[in-house]
Amino acid sequence: MPTHTRIRMFNTKDTYPNQSLDNDLCQAVRAGNTVYVRGQVGTDFEGRLVGLGDARAQTEQAMKNVKQLLEEAGSDLSHIVKTTTYLIDPRYREAVYQEVGKWLKGVFPISTGLVVSALGQPQWLMEIDVIAVIPD
């Protein structure tokens, strides 16, 4: 009997057809009263990129994904306790953090921000993952 719930399972050979991958993953995991959300980018759940070249638009889509995944797990944005944001260029920081801030106004999570040389696909400008709780 599993001690956790996997949400939106997928295989990377379907989501990354341009790469030779074959990994079984999921978009979120609910373990007890904690929800771990996989890094979200500017791609909807059908694989369509939103905001080519636009870090703010990609962030908006990523946050829509985060919201939906948390709700599917039984939580919501107000219960986020930690965010980790990845940028491929520090010049995107202001636009990305302003957009995330709109979604998390009044939440006060802890956060980590990183600038990395690249993400999983060249068109992705940012990625965000979160940890949230499910209230008792």
From TrEMBL:
In terms of Pfam families, this protein maps to: Ribonuc_L-PSP
Q: Name one GO molecular function term.
A: deaminase activity
Query: What CDD domains is this protein classified in?
Result: YjgF_YER057c_UK114_family (cd00448)
Q: Which InterPro entries does this one have?
A: RutC-like_sf, YjgF/YER057c/UK114
Any single GO CC term annotated in Swiss-Prot or TrEMBL for this entry: cytosol
The record ties this protein, via SUPFAM superfamilies, to: YjgF-like
Q: Which family does it belong to?
A: Belongs to the RutC family.
Q: What is this protein called?
A: Enamine deaminase RidA, house cleaning of reactive enamine intermediates, YjgF/YER057c/UK114 family
Species of the source: Ectopseudomonas guguanensis
